[in-house]
Structure formats: structure tokens, C-alpha cells
Amino acid sequence: MDIVAHTLWAAAGAAAVHRRRPLSRGTVAVALVLAALPDVMHLLPIAAWWALGDGSFAAVRGYALASPGQEPWLPPIVELWSHHLHCVMHSAPVAAIVTALAWGVRRAFWLPLLGWWSHIAIDVFTHSADYYAVPVLYPFTERGFDGIAWTTPWFMVLNYVALVLVGTWLLVRRRRPSGS
User: Fold this and answer.
1) Residue 176 — φ and ψ, nearest 5°?
2) Count of H helices and E strands in the chain?
3) What InterPro entries does the record point to (predicted)?
4) Where are the domains of the chain?
5) From 36, 45, 48, 128, which residue has the greatest number of CB atoms within 10 Å?
6) What is this structure's pTM?
7) Residue 177 reports pLDDT greater than 80
8) d(CA 22, CA 24)
């Protein structure tokens, strides 16, 4: 799924949770950042290559918008870092370790992590084997589930129609949580 849709779904989730339990703006902001972060992180090595090396903005843009097999040439080390960051950020075992560490420190579940978890859960089913299948069990395997490619036009329309309907429902059924 695209970064904007991930962020909007996380915002809808935060709005739904906020109905039952007050959430601070900071909590919501961190959850939204974490919902987008997995798709941003793997661009960092490419952006660094552009900023510090011989790369170009066209390569960053080309990579961000490319279909599988259509990515621009990248130096092997940049490609390796980008690939593994993508795998790490879409990995349920990695997210589980971070969640457990946060739980150990806070002695409670850190709610903003739901943004990251929502990203992983959505991407498992919205990426096909041909369109960046999500390695949800990385580092144990890099195989991914063969879902629907989010770039499929009818699916993109359906996704954004669903977001509009959910957003409308949340606005119409708006209720302030007790204590706010």
C-alpha cells in the first residue's frame, strides 16, 4: 500500500481508539510516523547515495516509483542496504522484538507501535509476489505472501473509497471520550 494510505488508515485507527480511550496528539503523531516509516526507511541509503555520492534525485524518485524489475541502477552496497532495511521494517519478528523491548521498559504496550504493526499487516495482503512481496518473517525467510498488488487500479480506487467511507463514518459518529 502507498505511504499516504498507510498513514490515513493509521489515523482512522487512532480516531477509533480515541473514542474509547483518550489519546494525546503526540501518541497519534508517533503512530502516524511509524505507519509510514517502513516505506521511508529503505529509501535512506538511496538518498544518502544522492546526498553524499554520485547518486541523483532522479534515481531516488525512480526507485520510489518503480515497478519491480524497473528500478534504476544502484551501487551494490546501496541496493543491499535498501533491500535489508525494507525487510527489517516489514518483519513481524523484528517488530515483535521492538514491542517486547518497549513493553519491558514501559511495563505496558506502547500504543504508537500499532502504526508500525498496521503497516506490516496491511502490506502482507496488499503486495503480490510480483510487486514487492512483504518478507513478514524476515530474517527467517525473505519469502512473502502473494496478495493483491496495491498498485492495481481497481484496488487503489476501492482502498481510497473505503478510506473516505471510514473517515465519513468517523466524522458523523464522532463522540468525545470521557475525560477530554
Assistant:
1) -75, 135
2) 8, 0
3) YdjM-like
4) 3-172
5) 45
6) 0.89
7) no
8) 7
